[in-house]
Write a structure and sequence with these properties.
By secondary structure, the protein is of the alpha/beta class. Helix content is 29%, strand content 32%.
Length: 370
């Protein structure tokens, strides 16, 4: 995709084109009309990264056009990034340019911002970082009121902490999250809130039921949904995400979630009784009333075994970041379930990407075996 200026005035039509393309792709499934959730047309990305280009005594932010990958495109203003990142960019650039200890062999900068006002900046170098760098970085962090992390090959220097603290307004309540450097977080916070509220609205009234959640990440959906269920059994493979999720449950005073560091394939094998796992030795799966499942898989969608597992549940809430793999999975799930609700969340305006949410219910009254 070429690097071209965004055009907020064109956004409504671009979104309408996406919705039309989605409708054409899924025409064979007879899905209900979707609820479309547009993004803010500007300042919607909570994270951004740039190469740093050195031109004699000047340095500047740069990106590269795939059509001309060796030619840096200078970026002085990046309106897709959050307003706080846009405000910080010129101030940070000038501070780095004026400090030889911080600018020397600086290669890349990554920003992670929040709705709550927290900001983390990762400075990445082609050299080993020393005490002189650390002293200069600590002064910069204090001057700009930001968190700074320094990285180079096989080196990570955390000056204070390696996470930001986010606060998301969800359905009239605030939920607190630690978002770790290097860990996955939803890039568009406004759309993220809309996705969580949509899921919560369609899974409300489940206090006597238990929820299984695969790919739970840092507890993004888990924390708000936990109050709608008796218990939640969640799985996640990333160590960083599992650590963050446990901390986020504690921050939000949630005590009815059990999180397992397992892949979806491993959990499927455990639920089918095909393998025993030490990670499950204190959990009796038979004690759970497993009739609802939430899946938010990577772009590859569901593998065959996980898709078969998901089909055993009475209610399926499927969050997808790839309409094409979602279509493939729904072609199979449509044999046993029908689609009650459909939503589209424009997480990435001005691109072809589209996030989707689907609520499926079993076609008969039989509950899945647990």
């Amino acid at each position: 995709m070429s690097i071209t200026p965004i055009q907020p005035e064109a956004y409504p039509q671009l979104l309408a084109d996406k919705v039309s393309d989605f409708a054409s792709l899924f025409a064979d499934l007879g899905l209900p009309a979707p609820k479309v959730h547009p993004s803010p047309a500007e300042h919607y990305r909570m994270r951004a990264e740039f190469r740093i280009w050195h031109d004699n005594d000047e340095l500047y932010y740069a990106m590269f056009d795939p059509a001309q990958p060796k030619i840096p495109v200078r970026i002085d203003y990046f309106p897709t990034a959050s307003a706080s990142i846009c405000r910080l960019m010129p101030v940070l650039r000038q501070a780095l340019q004026n400090n030889e200890h911080l600018r020397h062999r600086l290669f890349q900068i990554e920003f992670l911002s929040t709705l709550s006002g927290d900001m983390m900046v990762t400075l990445i170098y082609h050299r080993k970082l020393d005490d002189t760098w650390q002293a200069a970085a600590e002064g910069l962090a204090q001057d700009l009121n930001i968190t700074i992390i320094g990285r180079s090959r096989k080196q990570k220097l955390v000056l204070s902490r390696d996470y930001v603290e986010e606060c998301l307004p969800i359905a009239g309540r605030e939920y607190h999250y630690r978002q770790y450097e290097g860990g996955f977080t939803q890039p568009n916070a406004h759309i993220n809130c809309a996705m969580i509220e949509w899921a919560l609205a369609h899974l409300a009234g489940s206090e006597s039921r238990d929820l299984v959640e695969l790919y739970c990440g840092n507890g993004n959906f888990t924390a708000p949904l936990a109050g709608a269920f008796r218990r939640v059994l969640a799985t996640e493979i990333s160590k960083t995400s599992v650590k963050a999720a446990r901390e986020n449950f504690a921050l939000n005073h949630i005590d009815n979630v059990e999180i397992l560091r397992m892949s979806s394939e491993e959990f499927t094998a455990a639920l089918n009784g095909e393998r025993e796992f030490r990670r499950l030795e204190n959990i009796n799966l038979a004690d759970y009333t497993l009739d609802t499942i939430l899946v938010d898989p990577p772009r590859a969608g569901l593998d065959d075994a996980t898709r078969a597992l998901v089909a055993r549940f009475k209610r399926i809430l499927y969050i997808s970041c790839n309409p094409h793999t979602l279509h493939r999975d729904l072609q199979q799930l449509h044999k046993t379930h029908h689609c009650e609700q459909l939503a589209m969340f424009d997480q990435f305006p001005y691109t072809e990407h589209l996030e989707c949410g689907v609520l499926l219910t079993e076609r008969d009254e039989l509950c899945p075996s647990s």
